Amino acid sequence: MNVVVVESPAKAKTIGKYLGPDYRVLASFGHVRDLPAKDGSVRPDEDFAMSWTLDERGDKRIDEIASALRKADRLILATDPDREGEAISWHITEALKERKALDSKPVERVVFNEITRRAVQEAMKNPRQLDRELIDAYLARRALDYLVGFTLSPVLWRKLPGSRSAGRVQSVALRLICEREAEIEIFKPREYWSVIAALASADGTPFEARLTHLSGNKLDKFDLGDRTAADRAVAAIRAAAPFAVSAVERKTVRRHPAAPFTTSTLQQEASRKLGLGTTRTMRIAQRLYEGVDIDGETVGLITYMRTDGVQIANEALNQVRDLISRRHGKDYLPDSPRGYSSAAKNAQEAHEAIRPTDLNRHPDSLGRLLDRDELRLYELIWKRTVASQMESAVFDQVAVDIDGSGNDSRTPDGNGVTLRATGSVLKFDGFLTLYREDEDEPADENGNGGRLPDLNEGDRPALRDVRPEQHFTQPPPRYSEASLVKKLEELGIGRPSTYASIIQVLQDRNYVRLEKKRFIPEDRGRIVVAFLTEFFRRYVEYDFTADLESQLDDISGGRIDWKAVLRDFWKAFNVAIEGTRDLTITQVIDALDAALGPHFFPEPADGGNPRLCPSCGQGNLGLRLGKFGAFLGCSNYPECRFTRPLAPVDPNGGEVDAGPKELGKDAETGKTVSLRKGPYGIYVQLGEQSKEKGAEKPKRVSLPPNIAPDEVDLDTGRKLLALPREVGRHPETGETIAAGIGRFGPYLKHGPKYKTIPKDENVLTIGLNRAVDLLAQPGGSRGRGPSTPARTIGNHPDDGKPVTLHDGRYGHYVKHGRINATLPKEIEPDSVTLGEAVQLIAARAARTGGRAGGRGRGKAKASPKLAEGAAPKVRTKSQTKTKARTKTKAKAKARARKAPADAAVATAESDAD
Q: Is the pLDDT reported for residue 755 higher than 70?
């Protein structure tokens, strides 16, 4: 027997069917080992020795593999075909060696780019050994991310209270977003005008031309800077009539199809065309890769989805060319297959592009097997792959210059008016018959218009009308998920598998928010970037980060030693860290205040002092740092105690309307549907609260985390208020599956079972297939059974007992002995550290007196017995009032300690692949 190890249970089940009874296929459930989330896991002083630990889940997996190996002849590692997959295989091997479970059994590594019977069986015939260079590249990346996270983040916590963390790549992505926002804030629109002439050819066909030359000089963009200049140009055009065609330029332009999808281009197009976020896109792609049941056999629908390669296999090329010939005809098939190379900086192109495993499996044939988003993404991949091998589109482009003949227009001394008309006509659609990168794109890439009348030199078109058009320059657009991924790829920062996690971390840490599908930096994110740029500029430089990525690629290619890269990095980085030890809070505040002043205090229109304190009218507002983070305060403290949460000051003295936003009237009830903000977040409400005693409260529904407030219209509001909704009937039980929003967020309900809907999926649109899939997945249900530790974080420093992380009915929590402490939403379960867990447990124990679970009130304390014959104590009125005041003050202090949202314990995360 042979033991085969893959990452996921779904792959294990599928591959087990392909290989038969001589193979036992087990799942590792991803990584089995990791660096302990504590200081000292990577030790530069010991030549970057690294300590790895098995969590409880990984321990069970290794036990299962070791047990299976006792009766096996060999171990076959079939994890994903990338750097991370190689690392998982290495971890499994090392963990088995530590247990002496391998003995002398051979260990083989196999890789396949698609989960199909043919691909898996072919891979089993061609095993290899573990790739040491890929493993070294993984170790270097993991060590770099750990050293940055666990060395730089504590500096942030000490010098910048309330900040979260500073990841190696995450911080650079955040800098991009913040710098773009700063460009937008300082942008001042500039007015300019263009002049359009309406003309007609000799046969009366109308067309338009734009003024390009005036007084014999070519017009630049801002030469017509106001209405007066535009009106003069209009008068010059009228005076220059009649007009004659002076030049006609005709040319044929070919537009070529785009390459097949890489990870980043798939994320970009899925965002633009389908409205899917990067995390959601990758999750759907993972399901398509792992496959669906087709005629009793699970078949992977697409090739591996983490790649920066753009080439496709010869077998697939032959298949797609045959398909094009059959479905579209010979005119749409190039004479030879198209070849592509990646334009992305640092592209490795180690794997195929993302393509369907079988090009003959048309999207129309999968409608009953996939949910809506799965089908849309598969169709996008299928069309892009086929289009990439089709003939180019052909356009006829025409440019016509038309000169005025009046007032000696051809001489520099005269009016010298020249108009230009351009047109573009699609002559052969080629690949455009199947796929366009942008559905809203103009007729051609130069923005030219449609067909022009047949014009020749010497023709005299008639002038019908002239109109001036006003324009204003626009600020650069904020980054969308698609444009941010594109920019990171252009700069050579990060890798295909990291983009989704980078973007997710920025949102989870509340460094940025997504509004109208565009990133807006939060003030805490801007402060972190300002701090890093001021005191650690080299480590958030784009070129520096890209150069590190290049060095990691050199390691994977065997061109450089991985520890040499770490030594060079650590030598300079450690000096930079040491240089901040004597940095005072005052120095930090002054630097940040200077950097962020234009953001928080924009110049008012009346030219007054934007920093003037609105309370005392004497002091100036400035950035201050408190226990729980930054805020704006008056320089006249302590005489003036005015403070304001971080937010730009409105230069006109206005305030943002925090009242309800009316969305419209509900057609059924006639009541108003409104969007409101309460103490627990944004929600939708039907009707108004009656002031009559005992009146029924209006229906309210919290806004799901994946719906932005500015995206909520009347239709969305009504759908939310109509929840829970019926998704469909379970194919096995026949019972109804419902989707709704409860106390703990969006959920699915099937009989007595509840399942949380992932935050990147929409409770309003989730389909039956996806609902059944989620309900079948282990964990995450809100059952009442005993929970098992998700992982052991470490041992408590006081008693040495384990501190564990659990996923319970009410979310994630940490546990030590009998004390449970809820994990704040600001802390990622996967990155919680032992220090954070200990602090949370200590805080919980202090509040509950050490009672088990920390939820109930516990037993009431028995009243102290009076000594025999003693009289009970009687308080005077003044004593009673004094005690009441003391309790009130204590409660107020407790509320003040809890109030800031920034009070959650900060954590360092890794940007590892």
A: yes
> For residues 135-149, b (16+ Cβ closer than 10 Å) or e, as one string?
bbbbbbbbbbbbbbb
- What pLDDT band is residue 345 in, cutting at 50, 70 and 90? low
Identify how many contiguous H helices and E strands the chain contains and give both numbers. 21, 34
Domain containing 498 — which CATH number?
A: 1.10.460.10
- Would you call 304 a catalytic residue per the annotation? yes
What backbone torsions phi and psi does residue 377 show, to the nearest 5 degrees? -70, -40
- What mean pLDDT comes out for the span 512-529? 87
pLDDT for the residue 258: 92
The CATH number given to whatever domain includes residue 635 is 3.30.65
**CATH number where 401 lies:** 2.70.20.10
**Size of the chain, expressed as the number of residues it contains:** 913
Distance of alpha carbon 801 from alpha carbon 814, whole angstroms: 13
Domain range spanning residue 489?
140-187+477-578
Q: Are residues 205 and 181 in the same domain?
A: no
| 156, 437 contact by CB (below 8 A) | no
Q: Which residue has the tokens 């051609």?
A: 444
Where does residue 475 rank: exposed (0-12), middle (13-18), buried (19+ CB within 10 A)? middle
pTM strictly above 0.85: no
For the chain, give the mean pLDDT: 81
d(CA 418, CA 430): 36
Q: For tokens 């005119």, what's the residue?
A: 331
> 607 by DSSP, 3-state: which?
coil
pLDDT at 415: 55
Q: Degrees (nearest 5) of the Cα angle 762, 515, 714? A: 60
DSSP 322-345: HHHHHHH-GGGS-SS-------ST
Environment class of residue 679 by beta-carbon count within 10 Å: exposed (0-12), middle (13-18) or buried (19+)? exposed
The DSSP secondary-structure symbol of 271 reads I
Catalytic residue among 138, 192, 289, 304: 304
Q: Which of 472, 494, 527 is the last residue of a domain?
A: 472
Contact predicate 556/217, CB 8 Å: no
